Amino acid sequence: xxKNKTVRFKETVGIDIGTHSVKIVHLxxxxxxxxxxxxxxxxxxxxxxxxxLSDLRPERYAPVLVxxxxxxxxxxxxxxxxxxxxxxxxxxxxxxxxIFLPDEELESALFFEAKKHIPISGSDxxxxxxxxxxEEKTNNMNILLAATSKEVLNEHTRILDTAGLHPHIVDIDxxxxxxxxxxxxxVEDGVYVLLNVGAHRTNMVIWGPDAKFFAxxxxxxxxxxxxxxxxxxxxxxxxxxxxxFKYGLLDDPDNPTVQTISxxxxxxxxxxxxxxxxxxxxxxxxxxxxxxxxxxxxxLMGGGxxxxxxxxxxxxxxxxxxxIFLPFINVEMPEKFQDKKDPQLALxxxxxxxxx
Length: 356
Ligand SMILES: Nc1ncnc2c1ncn2[C@@H]1O[C@H](COP(=O)(O)OP(=O)(O)OP(=O)(O)O)[C@@H](O)[C@H]1O
Ligand SMILES: [Mg+2]
Prior knowledge:
By secondary structure, the protein is an alpha/beta fold. It folds into two domains: 1-88 and 148-185 and 326-356, 2-Layer Sandwich (Nucleotidyltransferase, domain 5); 187-324, ATPase, nucleotide binding domain (Nucleotidyltransferase, domain 5). 32% of the residues lie in helices and 27% in strands. It has a six-stranded mixed beta sheet with strand order 8-4-1-2-3-14, sandwiched between helices. It has a five-stranded mixed beta sheet with strand order 11-10-9-12-13, with helices on both faces. It is globular and about 65 Å long. Bound molecules: adenosine-5'-triphosphate and magnesium ion. Adenosine-5'-triphosphate binds next to helix 5 and helix 6.
């Protein structure tokens, strides 16, 4: 539901803190749409060497954020509107249906409802919701429930706090993905599949103007493409990363033969195959759950979307037209950024464009 609220700020900042990179987008609000003032993408993981995610500490983020803001010449105190997001294991978004309830009853009813749908223990749960529609015939309400745990939220605000940042809105990754798409695409009827391919996970959102919202995370991303290349092509991490940036999933045209170490390596499933399978499984589930199979397009965003051959691979395996999503339809790009349209910024742009 849209509230008609006057917007009091002229500039907005969206920050997407990923496990691999931090993305900051600084936008100016125009009469209609936005203008990109500046942006920055910076990795937070060791470069050139293989790392184990669980060994990396959340303390690594604040210094990166401070440096990025300096580069962008943004003083944390001057930010009038900051939107960030959280994602991962203890966050969840679900569309549910309830009987019509007045406001004062709705919240407590949803809390109990949420506990049924969302695997977070009751006392630790932070809940938000949005009434999407009230069905005319039945008077039932369609509601989008967003939940996370106090611990996840506290950890997120602690990181931002250390960098002097205080968000006005904290969104959930998959909602920001949907928002970025909704505000930057020519959406027709039907159902769209959005894949935000990160480094360690891929947020999948299935959504359409009249279709049920569905979101889940697939535990694969760019990190796994690199480790596949290491294994398949017998390369060190740094070489495999270089290979990935150059050829992605494709063969090096000058050296197309792949030596495998053992039979096991040939039979082991590739990351792209695992993603395609999870995707197919989710689409099947969606068709059953939502009774809608009008899939129009798969859009890829996130750093992993840039992996050469990925869009073609998924299109072939899932049989739905697939393309890379460039979130700039309603974001005016100054000349100096014209050739820098980057799907890795999609989520941060969705955040910065969230003004209410
Ligand atoms: N041009 C490119 N080709 C292939 N992969 C790329 C390219 N650019 C970035 N990547 C990969 O994209 C990933 C980073 O993307 P992104 O910033 O979306 O992830 P993240 O948000 O930090 O991770 P997550 O969402 O999993 O927490 C890395 O694995 C990186 O190697
Ligand atoms: Mg991410």
